[in-house]
Specification:
With 280 residues, the chain is an alpha/beta fold. It has helices at 11-22, 34-53, 59-67, 92-105, 121-125, 159-171, 187-203, 209-220, 226-233, 235-249, 258-266, and strands at residues 3-7, 26-30, 69-72, 83-86, 111-114, 134-139, 148-153, 175-180. The protein has two domains: 3-180, NAD(P)-binding Rossmann-like Domain (Rossmann fold, 3-Layer(aba) Sandwich), CATH 3.40.50.720; 191-271, N-(1-d-carboxylethyl)-l-norvaline Dehydrogenase, domain 2 (Orthogonal Bundle), CATH 1.10.1040.10. Bound molecules: acetoacetyl-coenzyme A. Residues 4-181 form the 3-hydroxyacyl-CoA dehydrogenase NAD binding domain.
Length: 280
């Protein structure tokens, strides 16, 4: 197997690196500072340890998987990879700067994928000289558990790039489903209005947070209630995606709930800050 490069060792990047290493790829995991890499590798180890406890993986296999991941702060180390998956912050300027660097560093045939949940693939692709080799690979959190990769074709993405990514997804043990490049793609166009509606229900006093979540869990068989899920995703991320939908479609049905905006302003971003719709 070839080399699989992941840029960004946060929640999504470390999960993607874990899945690729487990599938047998040599992985280069790049982040800007050693402490981010250490944190990412610790997350990978503890996720794999769950499988050791359940006897789905031996300790030796866990060590082999970890040994296939090479952490680095040097972007140039991704140069020999067959695929580069970007999982840095959800900010167009940051992604554009990175894609310009990747475009200069890697051979023109290397596929450059982005894990963005809401930024236009077409716009990111247009910052490079190879828009045909740029594509969206939207993994779901927690990456090792969720079977889906939403694959998004930009305006210029070639058939062969799309086919390569579909085949790559299968090698990772994931199911790839295709979407075209419109705001929120499919996943967040459908998920975010539901989470937003749950927030409006809380805001308008229709029910308590526990009742809203319980109704959706027990009544619709959702694994998490919508407010718990929003906290899990991150309220800043939810707000950013809703704003993309609102601006992209110009339709008031995507207007973010004022309670969400207020919580984000307060720094209550969900599980990661210890407070969101719940306390952690
Ligand atoms: N690494 C490895 N395994 C993990 C894990 C992790 N980080 N987190 C959970 N698991 C495993 C557990 O070990 C357990 O495995 P078994 O069933 O084989 O024993 C299984 O997942 C279930 O976990 P738990 O029993 O601990 O808890 P749970 O039943 O509540 O499941 C959950 C946890 C999988 C996160 C579940 O609550 C769930 O599916 N929630 C919804 C997640 C979701 O909707 N994700 C998408 C978010 S949207 C997104 O990511 C995209 C975006 O753009 C915003």
């Amino acid at each position: 197997m070839g080399t699989f490069a992941v840029i960004g060792a946060g929640t999504m990047g470390s999960g993607i690196a874990q899945v690729a290493a487990r599938a047998g790829f040599q992985v280069v995991l790049r982040d800007v500072a050693p402490e981010y890499l250490d944190r990412g590798l610790a997350t990978i180890r503890s996720s794999l340890e769950r499988d050791v406890k359940k006897e789905r993986l031996t300790v030796a296999q866990l060590e082999e998987i970890l040994a296939r991941i090479r952490p680095t702060t040097e972007l140039a180390e991704v140069a020999g990879a067959e695929i580069v998956v970007e999982a840095i912050i959800e900010n167009f300027e940051a992604k554009a700067a990175l894609f310009r660097e990747l475009d200069a560093l890697t051979p023109p045939e290397t596929v450059l994928a982005t894990n963005t949940s809401s930024i236009s693939i077409t716009r990111i692709a247009a910052t490079t000289k190879r828009p045909a080799q740029v594509i969206g690979m939207h993994f779901m959190n927690p990456v090792p558990v969720m079977p889906l990769v939403e694959v998004i074709r930009g305006c210029a993405t070639s058939e062969s790039t799309a086919n390569y990514v579909l085949e790559l997804g299968a090698r990772l043990g994931k199911t790839c489903l295709m979407a075209n490049d419109f705001p929120g793609f499919v996943s967040n166009r459908i998920l975010m209005p539901m989470l937003n509606e749950a927030m409006f229900a809380l805001y308008e006093g229709v029910a308590t947070r526990e009742a809203i979540d319980g109704i959706m869990k027990l009544g619709m068989n959702h694994p998490m209630g919508p407010l718990t899920l929003a906290d899990f995703i991150g309220l800043d991320v939810c707000l950013a995606i809703l704003d993309v939908l609102y601006e992209g479609f110009g339709d008031p049905k995507y207007r973010a709930c004022p309670l969400l905006r207020q919580y984000v302003a307060a720094g209550w971003l969900g599980r990661k800050t210890g407070r969101g719709f719940y306390e952690y």
